[in-house]
Amino acid sequence: MPKILIADDEPGMRVLLCQTFEDIEENGVKLLTADNGKETLEIIKTKKPELVILDIMMPGMSGYEICDTVKNVLGMKGIYILMLTAKAQESDKQKGRDVSVDSYMTKPFDLDEIVEKAVEVLGIKP
User: Fold this and answer.
1) Chain segment 60-77, per-residue pLDDT in tens
2) Are the CB atoms for 109 and 84 separated by under 8 Å?
3) How many Å apart are CA 93 and CA 87, to the nearest integer?
4) Which residues carry the post-translational modification 4-aspartylphosphate, per the record (predicted)?
5) Per DSSP, which regions of the chain are E strands?
6) Among 60, 47, 58, 112, which residue's Cα sits nearest to residue 83?
7) Is the pLDDT of residue 108 over 90?
8) What is the chain's mean pLDDT, rounded?
9) What is the pLDDT of residue 79?
10) Are 121 and 4 in contact (CB under 8 A)?
11) Residue 29 burial by CB count (10 A; 0-12/13-18/19+): exposed, middle or buried?
């Protein structure tokens, strides 16, 4: 069963994204959520979600630190990390590339685009 981890410290954002993925959840995708950096990293290490939707600014550990740990320290290259953040400066995007983020979207974002990316990454039909 494919898994998506939604990691954001804002409860409203987690709810919005969970609602957005309801259709693909009915196709056997499991949704996981985390509200801080340490919990996010622990879920990634234990549950190994195929897709992580990751905010940068979170308590405990930033999205950059999580991505760097997952991709470059632990070598978990098979986990697709989509950075979803309000940080839209080119320097922020470059920092994401430096830690091996797979995709970078800025808020506000198009919900349909996120679903399309999830469907593509997971290889499922919506």
Assistant:
1) 999 999 999 999 999 999
2) yes
3) 8
4) 55
5) 3-7, 30-34, 51-54, 80-85, 103-106
6) 58
7) no
8) 93
9) 97
10) no
11) buried
Domains of the chain are 3-122 (3.40.50.2300)
For 82-108, the three-class secondary structure string (H helix, E strand, C coil) is: EEEECCCCHHHHHHHHHCCCCEEEECC
pLDDT at 126 over 70: no
Lowest model confidence (mean pLDDT) among 11-15, 83-87, 119-123 = 83-87
The CA R_g of the chain, rounded to the nearest whole Å, is 13
Torsion of CA 44, 29, 11, 42, to 10 degrees: -10
Q: What distance in Å separates the CA atoms of residue 118 and residue 123, rounded to the nearest whole number?
A: 8
State the pLDDT at residue 125.
72
Tell me the average pLDDT across 38-54.
97
d(CA 78, CA 90): 26
Please answer whether residues 83 and 104 qualify as being in contact, where contact means their C-beta atoms are separated by less than 8 angstroms. Answer: yes
The SS3 call for residue 5 is: strand
